């Protein structure tokens, strides 16, 4: 597995490299800012996952994430941050980010999260995803993962599996697998019924 970590904090970078070097199947490349990371992406072999520090030089908020996602190669890109507002993380996930990793995450959990995202899944800490405001949450939402919610949103927008896959940088077969799980969780027989269920509870 090949990962690229871009962060301008040398001490943290050294710690992250030490974390991943405990795994024989992870090869790490590093960069100190977004322009350097993008140059590596453009000139090197494809990476299984790219971790970008939200606040490093060149990021300009989520614009840096979106730029990295738009580069050729269809790379999976995740945010790395000491702290990030819930709204920022939600917007990043909606934009197609592979996930969000807090810098405070324990080493073992961080390694598992990286492997999870490199396999094509979307990750955010459970406590973070469920740290909702005081507004009530429909039980249906609590059943679904962030990726399944993205699938459902795509259905309500009338998108095909191919279009959803393109937006989220995943393959069409992967979309179909997520759809099957989505249908089962919400009790829908097909994509039309799933979209109607989402509209009835005003989910999107």
From TrEMBL:
Gene3D superfamilies: 3.40.50.2300. Residues 137-202 form the HTH luxR-type domain. InterPro entries: CheY-like_superfamily, EvgA-like, NreC/VraR/RcsB-like_REC, Sig_transdc_resp-reg_C-effctor, Sig_transdc_resp-reg_receiver, Tscrpt_reg_LuxR_C. The keyword Transmembrane does not apply. The keyword Phosphoprotein applies. Keywords: DNA-binding, Phosphoprotein, Plasmid. The modification 4-aspartylphosphate is found at residue 53. Residues 2-118 form the Response regulatory domain. Pfam families: GerE, Response_reg. This is Transcriptional regulatory protein DegU. The gene is degU_1.
């Amino acid at each position: 597995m090949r990962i690229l970590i871009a962060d301008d904090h040398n001490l943290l970078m050294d710690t992250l490299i030490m974390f991943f070097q405990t795994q024989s199947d992870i090869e790490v490349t590093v960069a100190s800012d977004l322009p350097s990371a993008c140059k590596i992406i453009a000139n090197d072999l494809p990476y299984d996952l790219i971790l970008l520090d939200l606040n490093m030089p060149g990021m300009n908020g989520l614009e840096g994430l979106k730029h990295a996602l738009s580069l050729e190669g269809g790379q999976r890109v995740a945010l790395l941050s000491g702290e990030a507002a819930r709204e920022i993380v939600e917007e990043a996930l909606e934009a197609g980010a592979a996930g969000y990793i807090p810098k405070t995450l324990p080493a073992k959990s961080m390694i598992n999260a990286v492997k999870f995202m490199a396999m094509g899944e979307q990750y955010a800490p459970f406590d973070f995803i469920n740290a909702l405001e005081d507004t009530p949450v429909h039980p249906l939402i609590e059943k679904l993962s962030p990726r399944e919610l993205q699938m459902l949103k795509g259905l309500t927008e009338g998108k095909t599996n191919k279009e959803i896959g393109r937006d989220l940088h995943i393959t069409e077969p992967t979309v179909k697998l997520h759809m099957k799980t989505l249908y089962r969780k919400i009790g829908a027989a097909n994509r039309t019924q799933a979209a109607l269920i989402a509209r009835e509870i005003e989910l999107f």
